[in-house]
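Quick check before the chapter quiz. The format below is the same one you will see on the exam, so make sure you can read both the input and the output lines.
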Amino acid sequence: MKKWSIGGSGPLSSRWPKDENGVEIPPAFFQHVGGSELDVEMAANLIEAYGIPVLRRPVLDGDLGRVIIGYSGPGVDLYVPETMLEDAQNIVSADIVEDEEGADDAE
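Here is the expected output.
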């Protein structure tokens, strides 16, 4: 297995989970998000709202695109801790269920 690290002491590093030995849990590919930076932020913020840290990695020449046009044209890959991958997948695949109590108030 390749060595990797969130690195540094930034906000993502402090929120990334560690195993019982204090080693960061490896990231697992969650999803690719194409489109604008807004699309990327919406997808990442949905998962982060449930306490799951998200690592954003521009694909191909995405870093160059960010410098020239302000966002990664080919899109961004999102990674989450492998121990939280199933939770993240369940969050984005969940059906929105209207609250019956709220529906009665609207009538």
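If your answer matched, good. The CA atoms of residues 55 and 79 lie 5 Å apart.
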